Amino acid sequence: MTGKRAILPTEITPAGERVGVADLFYSFQGEGVNLGRRALFVRLMRCNLTCGYSRMPRRPNTPAVGAMVCDTEYTWNTAKHDLEAAPTMSAAEIWDALVRLDPATGDPSLAPVGLVVVSGGEPLLHRGTVTALARRATALGKALEIETNATINPGTELIAAGARFNAGLKLASSAVPYSKRVKPQVIRQLQASGQARWKFVVTSPDDVREIADLQQQFGLTDVWLSPEGTSVRVVADRMRWLADVALTRGWNLTTRQHVLIWGDERGR
Ligand SMILES: Nc1nc2[nH]cc(C(=O)O)c2c(=O)[nH]1
Ligand code: SF4
Ligand SMILES: [Mg+2]
Questions:
Q1: What CATH number is associated with residue 131?
Q2: Which of the ends of the chain has fewer CB neighbours closer than 10 A, N or C?
C-alpha cells in the first residue's frame, strides 16, 4: 500500500497540481480542421469514460462490448495498466518539454510549430493545467486544440484563453451509459463558445442516425465524421461509405492521417 487515496475517475485535478503525462511528441495533427499541420502533442492521463466497456473493467481480460473501443486505454484502464507509472509534471514543465520538441528551438532557420494539441484520456479533468498551457500558447501566437469527450465543463477561463475544442461526443457504440456520455449543459456551453467543432467517431450506420439526432437536439454546427480504426484498411473502408453520408447531410469528413502513416504506434 502506498497510503495514497484512490482518485475517482471523475475527479478534477486541483489547479496548480502536477498531472500524469502519458506521451509528449511532435507529429502532424492527424484529424480534423488542422489535419496535416505540424503540432506539439501532450497526452494526459486519466479519463472519466470507459469507451468499449459499460464501466471500468475489473480484470485485465474483461472483454470489450462496444464497437468503439478506446485506443488509449493505457491512460485510464486500471485493470490493464499501472497508471501510477506515468510521470507527473507541472504545466510549466509540460510547456518546457513541448518547446524542446519543436525543432525550431534548436535550429532557428526552421519555421516554429504553430499548433499545440492536448489529448488524453480526458484532458479537461486537468483544466487548470490545460488553461495554463492555453495561455502560454496564445501569448506566443500558437493555436491550441483540446481533444475532449465533451462531458466536462471547460470553464470560462479556458475559453477566454482562446483554446479550441475538438469535441468528440461519444455514441451508443462506445457502450458508455447515455447519462455519462451526454451532458447537455456541457454540450451547450461548448457550442455557445463558438470554439468547438463536433467530431464523431463512426463505426456503423446506426451511429449516423444518432449523430443527426444529437445535432438537431443541441443545434451543433461544424460537424465532423471520423472513421473508427487503427489500421489503413479499416480507416479506408469506413471513409468510402462515410463520404456520401457526410456530403449528403452537410457534415465534414476527416481521415486519421497518423493511422494511415504509422498504424496504431504510440506517440505518433
Ligand atoms: N498525429 C496524431 N494526431 C492526433 N489527433 C488526435 C489524436 C488523439 O489521439 O487524440 C492524435 C494522435 O494520437 N496523433
Ligand atoms: S473518452 Fe476518449 S480517452 Fe476516454 S475512454 Fe473514450 S476514447 Fe478513451
Ligand atoms: Mg486518439
A1: 3.20.20
A2: N
- Give residue 147 CA to ligand 2 midpoint distance, Å: 10
Contacts of 201 (CB under 8 A, 6+ apart): 68, 168, 170, 171, 226, 227, 228
228 within domain boundaries? no
Sort strands 88-89 and 19-28 into parallel, antiparallel or unpaired: antiparallel
Name, in order, each residue with C-beta under 8 angstroms of 227's C-beta and a sequence gap of 6 or more.
201, 202, 234, 235, 238, 239, 242, 255, 256
Does residue 143 sit within a domain? yes
Domain count, the chain: 1
d(CA 199, CA 203): 13
Q: Whose CA is nearest to atom 7 of ligand 2?
A: 70
Q: Closest Cα to atom 2, ligand 1: which residue?
A: 30
pTM of the entire predicted model: 0.97
Q: Does the C-beta of 215 come closer than 6 Å to ligand 1? A: no
Predicted ipTM of the assembly: 0.98
Which of 33, 119, 268 maximizes ligand 1 atoms within 8 Å of its Cβ, making it the mutation to test the pocket? 119
At 91 the three-state DSSP class reads helix
Please state, in angstroms and rounded to a whole number, the distance separating the CA atoms of residues 139 and 205. 43
Cα–ligand 2 centroid distance for 193 (angstroms): 23
CA-closest candidate to residue 268, choices 23, 11, 48: 23
Is 105 annotated in a binding site? The answer is no
- Ligand 1 atom 1: the closest Cα is on which residue? 30
212 part of a folded domain = no
Is the model more confident about 2 or about 120? 120
Q: What is the pLDDT of residues 125-162, one digit of tens each?
A: 999 999 999 999 999 999 999 999 999 999 999 999 99
Residue-wise pLDDT for 61-93, tens only, equals 999 999 999 999 999 999 999 999 999 999 999
Strand partners, 165: 146, 196
